[in-house]
Amino acid sequence: MNLKKIVISLFFLLAISSLQAQQYQISLLTCDPGEEIYSSFGHSGIRVLDLTTGRDMVYNYGTFDFGAPNFVLNFAGGRLDYFLSVSTFDRFIAEYNYFHRSVREQILSLNEQQKLELISFLETNYLPENRAYRYDFFFDNCATRVRDAISTVLGDQLVWHDEVQEPVDKTFRQLIDEMVYYMTWSDLGIDLALGSRLDRDATPLEEQFLPKYVEGAFGRAEIQGDGPTRPLVSNTRVILDFEKPAGSFGEINPYWIFWLIAIIFTGITFIGFKKGKLFIGFDVAFFGILGIIGLVMSALWIGSEIPSTKYNWNILWAFPGHLLLAIVLLKKTIKPWVLKYLLFALIMADAAVVFWILGWQSFHPSIIPLLLVLILRTNYLYYNIGKYKKVR
Predict the structure, then answer these.
(1) Of 339 and 73, which is predicted with more confidence?
(2) How many angstroms from the chain centroid is the CA of residue 113?
(3) pTM for the complete prediction?
(4) What domains does the chain contain, in order, with CATH numbers?
């Protein structure tokens, strides 16, 4: 009799478990990039659909508050917290529909226990004391958090199969360039702010700081060890599909502007040489701007908690000391150290070229004409400034 009760109880437990397994559908949502810099890398979210009640929610690790105190300073200093938010699926999709950003869904082939564990993991993360996290663009963001949630639940049962990827090594900088190549000013700003650590090859796992690489990794992955081996993704569908705009540098971009600056400086240098003039006002503006850029890069290098802002060799050509040079060039007399500084600035600019050629850091291509101007004018001033200004 007792055996009969046990068998019946087990039957009902299995029946309940079977129903629970069919209760939830969990999927990865991958959203295409937007037109703003903060949305230009795409987005990832986790959709949890309760098939019994119809409750349809999206867990979003990419939420931040523009109105937070000192938002810009905290973002630049690596002290900005993102947090996990939860919204309805309809509201989530409405936003991407409004901005004409495509959204794709990969339904995950999790078993009953895995689904419940993932939901429990997400709900625990959503508790007020847990939902905020210190954002790191490369290693802890909306995409890596989604990947890590699945990895935590599945553990060793999750096999990524990264070996079937196309064997092309890409640096972090190249991965960023894929997303912002046509956003020329943003691309330039990123290259100026972030240092040589971006110029090492990213592992397949590290590439997943970008949502499109998370999507690709999920498509290759398998679940093993809980029965027959199966793909992590059981089905894929397109929820929103918009045509991607054709890439364009835009009419106002640093490429032609910087080359125009180089042509102007070449012209005034030639005219100055012929007419015996320095045209020092151009140098005051040029070195002043480079010095200000150098001060910003130095502040990021020293004061930011973002590791990628360290060892930024853009400082070889945009050096903070150039701002002091711009100030002293306005004076009628100059100190002997100015000549030594001009030689120092020339050597630094040449060193930047060497660093670039040797691959120690890749600079933004648009700065080539600025480097040429820097080399040209430091040479010209070094050999000619003493003819027109007193050195004492």
Answers:
(1) 339
(2) 35
(3) 0.86
(4) 21-165+204-240 (3.90.1720), 254-391 (no CATH)
CA distance 43 to 214: 10
Contact call for residues 106 and 239 (beta carbons, < 8 A):
no
Whether residue 119 contacts residue 263, with contact meaning beta carbons closer than 8 Å, is answered with no
Question: What are the C-alpha distances in Å from 338 to residues 52, 244, 317, 344?
Answer: 77, 52, 17, 10
Separation CA 195–CA 75 (nearest Å): 17
The token pair that represents 62 in the structure block: 């990419």
Pull the structure tokens for residue 36.
């703003």
d(CA 60, CA 153): 18
Structure tokens at 385: 């400034």
Neighbours of 274 (CB within 10 A): 8
C-alpha torsion angle, residues 276, 282, 283, 287 (rounded to 10):
-170
> Distance between CA 98 and CA 109 in Å, rounded?
30
Residue 11, phi then psi, degrees to nearest 5? -60, -45
Give the phi and the psi of residue 273 in degrees, each rounded to 5: -65, -40
Locate tokens 């060193």: which residue?
351
CB 333 within 8 A of CB 392: yes
Round to whole Å and give the CA distance between 216 and 208.
9
* Strand-by-strand arrangement of the 103-108 sheet: 132-134, 81-88, 56-63, 43-50, 24-31, 103-108, 233-240
What does the pLDDT look like over 264-316, one tens digit per residue?
Answer: 999 999 999 999 899 999 999 999 999 999 999 999 999 988 899 999 999 99
pLDDT by residue (tens digit) across 153-188? 999 999 999 876 666 789 999 999 999 988 999 999
